[in-house]
Amino acid sequence: MVVLVDPISLIRNQKPSLYSDIPSIDLSKPNSKSLLVKACEEVGFLKVTNHGIPLEVMDRLESEAMKFFALPQLEKEQAEAARPNRFGYGNKIIGGNGDVGCVEYILLHANQKSISQISHQLFKEKPDVFCSAASEYISSVKKLACDVLELLADGLNIQQRTIFSNHFMGEENDSLFRINHYPPCPELQAVDCNLIGFGEHTDPQIISVLRSNNTSGLQISLKDGTWVSVPSDQTSFFIIVGDALQVMTNGRFRSVKHRVLASSAKPRVSMIYFGAPALRERIAPLPLLMAEGEKSLYKGFTWSEYMESAVKTRLADNRLGVFEKNVKLIDES
Questions:
Q1: Catalytic amino acids?
Q2: What is the pLDDT at residue 2?
Q3: Its domain of life (predicted)?
Q4: Among 308, 260, 309, residue whose Cα is nearest residue 105
Q5: 34: number of CA atoms within 13 Å, CB side?
C-alpha cells in the first residue's frame, strides 16, 4: 500500500491525449506575426522555434540549478527558513492560501539586484557562476518576450509595436523568474493516479516564456475544458498568454489554464520568465483593439491592485473575476 504523507492532491490517471496541434511558429518566417495572433486567440499557448537563444545558454542555467536541487534536503530547508520573503528557495508550498504541489523551486525578481541576492543566498561557494548563467538566460528570454509581443502588435496592425512590451521594459517592472524542479515520484507506479506537481492556474502577468527539459507533465486546458498533454521540447520555448494580456485585448487573447503532473520516473525542470508591468502601471482594454460599439469586459486596474487581490486567492481561482464587468448591466458608452 502506498502512503503519501504530504497533503498533495492525487488525481485519477485519465491519460490525457498528447496535443499534437499546439501551434508551432517559426519566428524567422514572414507570416509569424499573423500565426502568433491566431494562436493567442484560439489557444493562448504556442511554441516558438528559430528564437535565436543558443541551447548552451539554456543548458548552462539548468545545470547550475540542478546542482542546488541535488543538495541534501536539510541544507535546502535551511536556505528556505533563512529567506526574508517569498523569494529564494521554496518547497511544496505554492502561495499562502493552502496550495501545495510536488515541486521545489527557485524564485526571484527578473532584475540584476535580485539575481545577485538569490545567487549569494543559495550558492555559498560559487554564487557568481549561477548569477552569470541566470543573468544571461533572463536577458535572452526577456528579449524573446519583447520580440513576440512586438510581432503580435504588428499582427494586430497596431502602429505602436511596443504597446505591450514597453510595460516591462522599465527598471521598475515586476517581472519574475522561476525555476521549478519536479522530482520523480516512483511511488506513483503502484497506483493508477497522478500526483499534482503544480495545480491548475492561469498566469497573472502579460506573457510567460517557458522552457523545460525533455520530461513530460505539462498540460493545458482547451476551450471545452479538456486537458491535453504538451509534448516536451527542450530546444524550443513555449509562450503563454497571461491575464494582463487577456485584459488588454479585451478577451480577444486567451489566458490559458495549465498544470503540471509529476512523473513516476524522471525529474522535470522548467524555467519560466513572467513579463509584468511596474506596480503603479494601469492595465485596461485597449480602445484601439475594440470594434465600434464593443463594450469593455474589464474594469481598469493597476498591477498593484491586481496583485493585492490575487494574493487572497487559490491557484485555480479566476483572479480576473473581481475585475470583470457585467456588460449587460453596465453601459460603457
A1: 268
A2: 35
A3: Eukaryota
A4: 260
A5: 3
Q: How far apart are CA 98 and CA 330, in angstroms?
A: 35
Q: Are 166 and 276 in contact (CB under 8 A)?
A: no
What is the spatial distance between Cα 59 and Cα 94, in angstroms, rounded to a whole number?
A: 26
What is the spatial distance between Cα 207 and Cα 260, in angstroms, rounded to a whole number?
Answer: 18
pLDDT of residue 172: 94
Report how far apart, in Å, the C-alpha atoms of 308 and of each of 145, 168, 278, 301, 311 are. Answer: 25, 19, 14, 11, 6
Q: 291: which residues sit within 8 A by CB, 6+ positions away? A: none
CA-nearest of 239, 171, 238 to 206 is: 239
Distance CA(255)–CA(166), nearest Å, equals: 20
Q: What is the pLDDT of residue 244?
A: 98
Q: By three-state DSSP, how is residue 297 classified?
A: coil
Return d(Cα 105, Cα 6) in angstroms, integer.
17
Express as a percent the part of the chain with pLDDT over 70: 90
* Cell matching residue 185: 515520484
Residue type, 238: F
Q: Terminus-to-terminus CA distance in the chain, angstroms?
A: 63
Between strands 45-49 and 88-94, the pairing is unpaired
Look up residue 77 and give its three cell numbers: 530547508
231-255 pLDDT, tens digit per residue, is: 999 999 999 999 999 999 999 999 9
